[in-house]
């Protein structure tokens, strides 16, 4: 979590120039492929941060995302892609392939870095169980949410889309359970974070950032996990 309390890395005052360029390049790439201006949601920024931490190069992202958009357009030209989360399985598959090829090359050489790049098969039930276990104890209807998470089936894209819908429900449930004092505390934290960013963002950018920051502070204080396979 950044010093601002937000998972939107572009709002982090300590962000390096290289990291900032990486995140903005992803947003620009997505908008170009989607052929429209689109503000990435908090969940998208969370995913972009995971890609950065994993060391996924922009060249691989461009290839994986481009192929996904082309294939989806062939399957259903009317289907509009609104989130990076829909692209996550395609990116993960490309990255896994690169890592596996790297591991093979290492094993066929002098053995140096033999374990680098090896990846284990994706275990969907284990990942879903882990997400269900991360739900905070005080969450309203926690067991019902946990059961719905564990019951998800299908390929990675289908499950990821279902998790995105559940994540939105989860957030709404947590927000509805806040008392006035908790709401005031979140608003105060957002105000402090925005003051730190005042010199970096325009007035319009601050307005757009306010809602994202509030959602991130609420998620952090409520202990809500990101419901995502990736």
Describe the protein's architecture and organization.
- It is a single chain.
- With 230 residues, the protein is mainly alpha-helical.
- It has one domain (9-222).
- Helix content is 64%, strand content 0%.
- The protein has nine helices and no strands.
- The protein has helices spanning 17-34, 42-54, 58-75, 88-108, 124-133, 142-150, 156-176, 180-197, 203-222.
- It starts with 16 loop residues before the first helix and ends in an 8-residue tail after the last helix.
Task: Give the SSE map.
Elements: H1 17-34, H2 42-54, H3 58-75, H4 88-108, H5 124-133, H6 142-150, H7 156-176, H8 180-197, H9 203-222
Helix pairs in contact: 1-2, 1-3, 3-4, 5-6, 8-9
Average pLDDT taken over every residue: 80
Structure class: mainly alpha
Oligomer: single chain
Per DSSP, the total helix count is 9
Taken together, the total number of domains comes to: 1
What level of helicity do the residues show?
55-70%
- Shape descriptor reads globular
- Rg over CA atoms, rounded to whole Å, is 19 Å
Q: Separation of termini? A: 17 Å
Number of DSSP-assigned strands:
0
Low-confidence stretches: 1-6, 107-120
Share of residues in strands: under 5%
**Main beta sheet: strand number and arrangement?**
none
SSE string, helices as H and strands as E: HHHHHHHHH
């Amino acid at each position: 979590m950044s010093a601002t309390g937000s998972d939107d890395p572009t709002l982090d005052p300590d962000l390096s120039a290289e990291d900032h360029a990486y995140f903005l390049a992803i947003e620009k790439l997505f908008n170009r492929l989607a052929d429209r201006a689109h503000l990435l949601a908090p969940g998208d920024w969370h995913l972009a941060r995971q890609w950065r931490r994993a060391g996924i190069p922009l060249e691989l992202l461009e290839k994986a995302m481009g192929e996904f958009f082309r294939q989806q357009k062939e399957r259903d030209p009317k289907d509009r892609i609104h989130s990076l989360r829909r692209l996550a399985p395609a990116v993960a598959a490309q990255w896994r392939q690169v890592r596996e090829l790297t591991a093979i090359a290492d094993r066929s050489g002098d053995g140096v870095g033999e374990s680098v790049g090896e990846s284990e098969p994706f275990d969907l039930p284990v990942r879903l169980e882990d997400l269900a276990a991360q739900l905070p104890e005080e969450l309203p209807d926690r067991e019902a949410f946990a059961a719905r998470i564990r019951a998800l089936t299908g390929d990675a894209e289908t499950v990821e889309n279902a998790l995105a819908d559940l994540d939105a429900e989860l957030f709404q449930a947590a927000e509805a359970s806040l008392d006035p004092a908790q709401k005031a505390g979140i608003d105060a934290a957002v105000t402090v974070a925005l003051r730190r960013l005042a010199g970096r963002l325009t007035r319009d950018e601050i307005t757009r950032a306010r809602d994202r920051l509030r959602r991130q502070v609420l998620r952090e204080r409520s202990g809500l996990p990101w419901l995502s396979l990736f």
